[in-house]
Amino acid sequence: MKSTNLYKGSLVTIILKLLNENDKMYGYEITQKVKEITKNELQLTEGALYPALHKLEAQGMLHVEISKVGNRVRKYYRLTEDGTKETVAKLAELESYIRNMRALVNPKFREG
Amino acid sequence: MKSTNLYKGSLVTIILKLLNENDKMYGYEITQKVKEITKNELQLTEGALYPALHKLEAQGMLHVEISKVGNRVRKYYRLTEDGTKETVAKLAELESYIRNMRALVNPKFREG
DNA sequence: TTTTATGCATAATAATTTTATGTATTACTT
DNA sequence: AAGTAATACATAAAATTATTATGCATAAAA
């Protein structure tokens, strides 16, 4: 992740949501998708991405499927059932975070 | 900071914005203000807050003014000029972050 | 009078990410 | 044909940030 330090803690949410939307993806593909969607504003670093994928897999959130394209190895990741549940939870957390930050930063968003 | 790990990296933004809005505040007051605004959803931990205030002071973003209320010491923090500039920058970063996260998480927010 | 609230502080630990590497295949350019 | 850029994985050391656990002390409330 290369950008502001605000993105700290957002990596898992991003990975889960993209997998939720795209069925299966491999690591490099995720980095490219993020660059594309954010118009180069956010670049996932490999040193953050791969350990995060491995951890999610170890936690049973993702299932891996190794594929070979020519002589090159690809690891396709897919959400498990638990991963899908976790995605929902993470998205709710993000909405809550955004709501709270908006309230903190903009008095207009503070309700009585 | 006690909540999701999404808040990692947001502490400085929160502190600067509250000081920008309230002219001067002391540490404990900041924790209470955050609780109030977020309706207890976000609790700043002292172990995070005080070191952050000290660091911002060392960086020249904040100016301290010690005050005594009864026998109790309070440290009022106030933005310096640099601190005010930094606040503007941090708020812009937050908006950018929210925009990017919305795009990542909600296809509706992706523009061509 | 004892608990809760106010008010500061720091140190050890944990978690997450950056930076720096490393390996290897494939495509593009000159 | 050779060199560079892109694709694709991986990990380890260092840095950053926050949590947890303390510690001290005053003031208010039960």
UniProtKB/TrEMBL annotation, chains A, B:
InterPro entries in UniProt: Metal_resp_DNA-bind_regulator, Tscrpt_reg_PadR_N, WH-like_DNA-bd_sf, WH_DNA-bd_sf
Transcription regulator PadR N-terminal domain sequence ranges: 15-86
Signal peptide bounds: none
Pfam families attached to this UniProt entry: PadR
Coiled-coil regions, chain positions: none
PANTHER family in alphabetical order: PADR-FAMILY TRANSCRIPTIONAL REGULATOR, TRANSCRIPTIONAL REGULATOR RV3488
Protein name: PadR family transcriptional regulator
